[in-house]
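Lab notes, practical 5.
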Amino acid sequence: MKTVLFHRHFLKFQGGHLKAFHYFTHVLAAPGWTAKVRFTENSVWDERNPWRDHRGHVLETDEPCEPDVLFLGGRDWERIPESEWSRPGRPVLNLIQHTRHGFPDDPRHRFLANRAVRICCSQQVNDSISPFANGPVITNRYGLDPGEFPKPIPFEHKSVDLFIAALKQPRLGRRLRLRLWRPGRRIDLQTDAVLRPEFLDRVNRARVTLFLPHEDEGFFIPALEGMALDTLVVCPDCEGNRDFCLPGENAFRPEFAPGAIRHATEEALRLSPASAQSLRDAARATFADNHIDRERKRFHEVLADLDRLW
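Output from the prediction step:
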């Protein structure tokens, strides 16, 4: 068995942790491979940590491990000796989840000079880092597991007209709620972090969900989650949603400006039943096309070809 070692600094649940966990399970599902993970001492172990049911694969802080492959994401390079950055003694798989890694003023940019096989979550991320990356760069679009979602509530039985998911943009979310409120319109605004099951439940109860990401993202997972739960998705352009939020086809993707976002949301709320059905059908097809099995299959191909890639 070959071992892939992951590193994590887990203080709160984020999409980046979810995706690292998915890759961890991809390794466990690959014949001839196993995975280990080392957490920082102050990492949190509660119901938010997806590794809580895999403690047998978690290394103690000082427990030795000589892996065959390192799997790094974000600033995980800082968890290994700097002497191994430029000439690692084993293959390194580096998951890149944001376009900002390609920005020279970003603290993660310097890690691109280190030898690694880089796996990008979207073509936009690939385009951002490719000019600077030392080693192969591969795009493996995000996939999600349908088993992690509640059963979608039928559209006609949804109890909320508009859910505004504004954890990353609380001020904008509050401003838009005031502009979008009408007598009798049921609006649910989220500005604080909640457990993922609660977040998915709130999306599931809404006819329309307005997702407010950062203005630049690598791949904005919540919008794809909305497609899985039969809500009409409104998500302003954030670069990392261009692969799957297709305006007029499966979602509304206005420019990232308050007026444009408000206008698109009002349009979604007024959409005719036939037009709403068409967008939701296309959205569910998009979610199916981004199934975690596709992502796993592509990653297993990378593992099988790792000697040549490295």
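Observations recorded by the TA: The CA atoms of residues 4 and 69 lie 5 Å apart. The chain has a mean pLDDT of 94.
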